[in-house]
Each structure stands twice: as structure tokens, then as C-alpha cells.
Amino acid sequence: MNYVIIGNSTAGVAAIEAIRECDKDGRITVISDEPYANYSRPLISYLLAGLVSADKMPYRTGDFYKDNRVELILSKRADRLDLETREVILQDGKRVPFDRLLIATGGIPIVPEIKGINLNGIFTFTRWIDAERIKKYIEDNGVEKALVVGGGLIGLKATEALMELGIKVTIVELADRILSATFDKKASKIIEDALSQMGCRLITSNTVVEFSGEGQKVEQALLRDEETVPADLVIIAIGVRPNVELPVHTPIKVNRGILVDDLMQTSVKDVYAAGDCCEARDALLNINRPIAIWPNASRQGKIAGYNMAGVRREYRGGFAMNSVELCGIPTISVGTTDPSALPGTGPEGEYEVLDHLDENRAVYKKLVLRDNTIVGAIFINDIDRAGIYTGLISDKVDVSSFRAHLLKEDFGLISLPKEYRKHLVTGEAIEI
Amino acid sequence: MKRIYIREEYCMGCRLCEIHCLVQHSKSREIIKAYKGEYPKPQPRLIVEEKGYLSFALQCRHCEDAPCLEACITGAMYRDRETGAVLCDEDRCVGCWMCIMVCPFGVISRNLEGKKVASKCDLCMGEETPVCVRNCPNEAIVYEEKT
């Protein structure tokens, strides 16, 4: 069996492991347009800040590819798919034949069409090379003021790294608050306050209409309200979209992302997709949509790998979840955190909210319930044992019998119904 | 693999397991120094849950299909090839707490003194029997291989 995996990040690596677990002999080829054998994308902000060294960037160590007998084709882009002859065509024209193919090409940062966007000093921030280029640009140009466009997780992690380097940062966010995709208002406010305290300027409900500078380097940004923000470095972090360049001119069905079934197979037999490039099932909203997060990519890659190797495993669906420290504040958000902001999912009345806010300690806990099951959670500062709630969300456990205990300080497995607790406490293996 | 099994009906809530666990994971491995004189302060790798007459000690289940392994962004969380235990390489851990977000047992905790790292049960690597099991006076936790 000839397995080819395009993309060498979370989903691709998980697929290698699953395939090798079931098929010791098949040939595995991995194609990546990056020069690195393996590295963790989320660590680039740590790398930029100098908190993690280059040798700690890989999350699978040196011999991983050798041990799994993977042929690595690095620094080469997969250009085209020939589904008739079952070949991947590389940028240099070389053809790589496959029996089973996994497309794990990830996401592409969205770059807005703004006047001056091509000036030097304007970067996106999703790959190792971005962190390297930004670092070099900062050193070469003595950057003092940066503008981060977009107050989502990538924007904030970039902000944090730049501030760690002593750079003054302004964030401009189109929505009326930061982290609007993952947090509710109260949670956003806690992080906004912490950012201001650290000396970061936050501009909301606004956007950049033009970048300009003398010569080729960016020097300032003109905002929609005509304010000019000086910036000798700009990071564009307004979101990522699934990378669907490869399948787009093939019979493989693509919506926003590559469509997959519960086996992670695309509409074309023997061609699979996993991770940020695909649209798999959202277990909470019961629709297919891209959810670009590490745990889902990892899970999907694994499921795809098993199925490619002929061992049937179904993807039970995933949901959005993020755990990030921001300004030194640990935060976890899972599932539907702000029902009032959900378009087209019915009136907010269907949802119930339990929450607890301690403004002095900046502790915030929130659970969103629907039909007696938890469908969303936010934890700020006190994140201990948050996974228990994630488990209840994932398993769609009816919480009516222990609802009153849900947000108590001593909430634990002991608060759960005996049957479920026994299952959890004595269970050897768990499927999520 | 050999795992720790919980028999909650035998647990008295004495918390000896917690004390022995903390001492075992201290530098000195001496109870008074461990509790009074070490920095970073050692912390137990298990949780004793208690409610009325019911109690049990809970530690990492070393799941076969472990969500923390999938969620770890640094490769710090890994499975020991020999024993099958799920372990955390604290040197690689950056304290992103993804593991805490996905562990349905809630048995990974934050060690906030010194370098911030995820802290969890390591089955007392190198010991014949984990110290929590060895020191439980009523066999409320047992260490065995079930098939």
C-alpha cells in the first residue's frame, strides 16, 4: 500500500502514527512545502518571544520519521492532483503515485486587500518562517511600535510575544471586543483590562483602510475613523481559511473546506482530508464546518490514518475548544460560549446560562446549557478540572440531577451520577 | 498494562495516599522537608474527592486512547513505550493547559511554582508499586493488570 500525506503538521503527523500502528509495511510519503521535519505551529509565538528555543519546536523528536519509515519530501509544494492516474504532481513536475491520499494542507491566513498591504514590515503569523522573518525585521529595523490587526487568538499571542520583546503594541479589532469568536463579553473584558494594564492599546469597532510609509517600509496605518496609528511593524491576524487550493479543480467536493464523511474520506474514494483544511462534523451544532484547532486536527488525522490503513474508525465530531494563557491569565473556552452571538441557531431562549464572576480575583466561570446538557464553557483564571466539563459536553451527559453542583468549588467526578462516575473512574480506555 | 484501580467503597478518606504522593514527588523525599522547606513546593499528583461518607483517590487513568496526548502542542505528553504510562516531560511543557482542557477526569493540575508545567501521576516510575497504592491502609486503590 502506498500512502501519501500532503502536509506535515498536526493532522499529517497523527495520520502517520495511526497508519503505522495498523500497517507495518506500507510505504508512507509525506510532502511539505516547509523545510522543517516537524514543528509545532502554536509554539511560534513562544519562539518569537524567546520563551522556547528552536530545538524545542518539534513535538515529535528526531527519529520519528525514521522510526516510522516515512519518506519526507520537504520544501516542495504539491501543485496538482491527478485523480485519474492517482498521482500528486509536485511544483518541480515530479509525480508521486498514491493508493491512499491524505490532504492535510491546513489553513491559510486571510490577508485583506488594503492599500499598502505589500509594504515591508507587514506579516502574517502562522508558520515558523513568519516568526523568523518578524524577528529579523525587528532586529534590522529597531522596531518600537507594532500594530496587530485582529484581536483573535493569533493576534493576541503575537501581541504577547511582541510585548515580551519590549515593543509597544496597538491592537485594532473590527468587532466591538477582542476574542469575540471564542469568548463572551465578560471574558473578553477581563483580558482587555489585563492588556491595557500591560500597556497595550486596544482599538475596537475599527479597521485599517490604508498602510503607508516613506520608501518601502510601513510606518503608519490609517484607520476607518481617519485616525493614524504609527507602526513600524504590522501583524495581520484577522483569521485563517481552509487551504483548498489542491482539490479546487478536481471532483473532490469543497465548500469552505474540503467536505469529508465520518471516516474523513472526501467525496472521492481513497482520498481523505483532515485538519484545518477540511469541514468535518461539529458535534454540537450538527453541521459540517471547519474548526481550526489542534485537538480536532490531531483526532481527524488519526481517524483518517486508521481508515486509510483499512481499520474502520468513525469520527464522532468535534467542537471548538481553546486553552490559552493570555497576559499570564489562563483561559479555557469550549463549545458554544456565547449563545446570544450565534446566528441562525434559534432564539437564545433555548439556552440557559450558569455563571460566576469574581471581579476582584478576575475569576470567571460560565456554563451554557441546552436541553439539560452542557454545550459550552468558559473558564478564566480558575481552569482546574475544566476537562471534566469538556467530557460532559463531549458525551452529552444529562446534567439535570447534579446541576446545582456544577459550578461549586468542590465540583468533581464525585458530583456525577454513580453510573457515569463508575464508568469514568474504572474505565480503562476512553473514546472522545 | 498494570493500572491503578479505584475501589471507592473501601476508601476512608484518610488522604495518606496524597501525603505519600507528595513526598514521593519531592526532592528530599522526606515528609517534613517536603511540606515545609522545598521550592518549588511539591504537589500531590492525585486528587482525593470527598462528599459526605463517600470518597476516593483519583489519579491519571493512563488511558489507552488518551486525549491529553492528542492535545499536547509540544510533545511533552508522551506514552512510555515500556510501561504504557502517559508521562509529562516537564522540560518540554510550556504550560498551555490544553491537557487540562481535554482530560475528562480532571487529574492533570498546574504546577505554578518555578516553571509552569502540567503535573500528573507518573505511576511512581521506578517503584514496584505506586506509593499511593502501597500506603493505602484499606486497599481502596489497587495496582494490577486486568485482562
- Report strand order across the widest sheet of chain A: 3-2-1-7-19
* Head-to-tail CA distance between termini of chain A: 29 Å
The rounded Rg of chain B comes to 15 Å
Q: Tell me the quaternary state.
A: heterodimer
> Could you estimate the helical fraction of the residues of chain B in percent?
10-25%
Q: CATH topology of the largest domain in chain A, what is it called?
A: FAD/NAD(P)-binding domain
Rg of chain A to the nearest angstrom?
A: 23 Å
- Total DSSP E strands of chain B: 8
* Secondary-structure element string of chain B: EHHEEHEEHEEHE
Q: Give the helix/strand class of chain A.
A: alpha/beta
**What characterizes the major β-sheet of chain A?**
5 strands, parallel
Instruction: Calculate the terminal CA-CA distance of chain B, rounded to whole Å.
Output: 9 Å
Task: Report mean pLDDT of chain B, rounded to a whole number.
Answer: 94
User: Which range does the strand content of chain B fall in?
Assistant: 15-25%
**Whole-number tally of structural domains of chain B:** 2
How much of the polypeptide of chain A forms β-strand, as a percent range? 25-35%
Biggest contact = A-B, 49 and 41 residues
Question: What's this, in brief?
Answer:
Chain A contains nine helices and 26 strands.
Structural notes for this entry:
The complex is a heterodimer of chains A (432) and B (147). Helix content of chain A is 22%, strand content 27%. Chain A is α/β, with parallel strands linked by helices and 432 residues long. Chain A has a five-stranded parallel sheet with strand order 3-2-1-7-19. A five-stranded parallel sheet of chain A has the order 9-16-10-11-12. A five-stranded antiparallel sheet of chain A has the order 22-23-26-25-24. In chain A, strand 10, helix 5 and strand 11 form a beta-alpha-beta unit. The longest helix of chain A is centred in the last third of the chain and has 15 residues, at 294-308. The model of chain A has no long low-confidence stretch (mean pLDDT 94). With 147 residues, chain B is of the alpha+beta class. Chain B has two domains: 1-59 and 123-147, Alpha-Beta Plaits (2-Layer Sandwich), CATH 3.30.70; 63-120, Alpha-Beta Plaits (2-Layer Sandwich), CATH 3.30.70. A two-stranded antiparallel sheet of chain B has the order 1-8. In chain B, 46% of the residues are buried. The interface between A and B is large, with 49 and 41 residues.
